[in-house]
Amino acid sequence: RFDLKNLAVPFKVLKSIRKARRTIRDFGADVVVGFGGYASGPVLWAAQRMGIPTVIQEQNSYAGVTNKLLAKRARTICVSYEGMERFFPKEKIVMTGNPLRGRFSKAGADRREALAHFGFRDDLPVLLVVGGSLGTRTLNEMMKVWVLRQGDASPVQVIWQTGKYYEREMREFLAQHP
C-alpha cells in the first residue's frame, strides 16, 4: 500500500548504512554477524562494502528477504534446516541449528519445573505455537479457530507466542473464550 512516509525509506536506509559504517570502523570489527530482518541489512551491507567478512545466521526454514539479498557476499551462512541451498550458495552453508542457552537444551531442561511454571498438568501433552515475522498473523488466526473448535475439551495444553503486536488482541479473544 502506498503511503507518503514510504518515500523517506530509501533516505533512512542510506542514513543507517552511514551510521553502520561509522560504528563498524570505530569498533574495529573483524567480522560482522547478521541474524536477518531489516535491522541487520544496513549493517551487513556496510560491512560487505568495507571488505569485512560477514556471517549470516538464518534460523527459519524459509529464508528471509534480507538474508537472501546479502547472501552472495557473505562468507558463511549458518542455517538451522536442511535444504537451504534452494536459497543460498551451497558452498557457503554451515548447518549449526538454532543456538540455545544451556538451560533450554535437553541437558538443562526440567520437565516438572517447566510444567509447574505454566501451571500445566503432567498427564497432558504441551503444544508450543511460535510464529515468526509475517507468519504470526496467520498462525494467530488459525489458533483462534482451533480454540473455538476445542472448547473446554482440549486434549493439549498450549503455550502460544502471539507476537507483541497481537498480544492484546489475543488476550481479549481468550478472555471471551476461556
What does this structure look like?
- Helix 1 packs across helix 2 (40-49).
- The protein has helices at 9-27, 40-49, 65-70, 111-118, 136-150, 167-176; strands spanning 32-34, 54-58, 76-79, 93-95, 126-130, 157-161.
- The protein contains six helices and six strands.
- The model has no long low-confidence stretch (mean pLDDT 87).
- The chain folds into two domains: 4-95, 3-Layer(aba) Sandwich (Rossmann fold), CATH 3.40.50; 103-176, no CATH class.
- The two termini are 36 Å apart.
- This is N-acetylglucosaminyl transferase.
- It holds the Pfam family Glyco_transf_28.
- One of its GO terms (molecular function) is hexosyltransferase activity.
- Residues 5-77 form the Glycosyltransferase family 28 N-terminal domain.
What's this, in brief?
This protein has 178 residues and is of the alpha/beta class. The chain folds into two domains: 4-95, Glycogen Phosphorylase B (Rossmann fold); 103-176, no CATH class. It has helices spanning 9-27, 40-49, 65-70, 111-118, 136-150, 167-176; strands at residues 32-34, 54-58, 76-79, 93-95, 126-130, 157-161.
Describe this protein with a few key phrases.
single chain, alpha/beta, Rossmann fold, 2 domains, four-stranded parallel beta sheet, two-stranded parallel sheet, globular
Topology:
Blueprint: H1 9-27, E1 32-34, H2 40-49, E2 54-58, H3 65-70, E3 76-79, E4 93-95, H4 111-118, E5 126-130, H5 136-150, E6 157-161, H6 167-176
Parallel strand pairs: 1-2, 2-3, 3-4, 5-6
Average pLDDT, rounded to a whole number, is 87
Q: Which sheet architecture does the biggest sheet show?
A: 4 strands, parallel
The CATH homologous superfamily of the largest domain corresponds to Glycogen Phosphorylase B
CA-atom Rg in angstroms: 21 Å
Low-confidence stretches: none
How much of the polypeptide forms β-strand, as a percent range?
Answer: 5-15%
Instruction: Tell me the number of helical segments per DSSP (H or I, 4 or more residues long).
Output: 6
CATH A-level architecture of the largest domain: 3-Layer(aba) Sandwich
Query: What's the shape?
Result: globular
Q: Which topology of the largest domain does CATH recognise? A: Rossmann fold
Based on DSSP secondary structure assignment, what is the total number of beta strands? 6
Strands side by side in the biggest sheet: 1-2-3-4
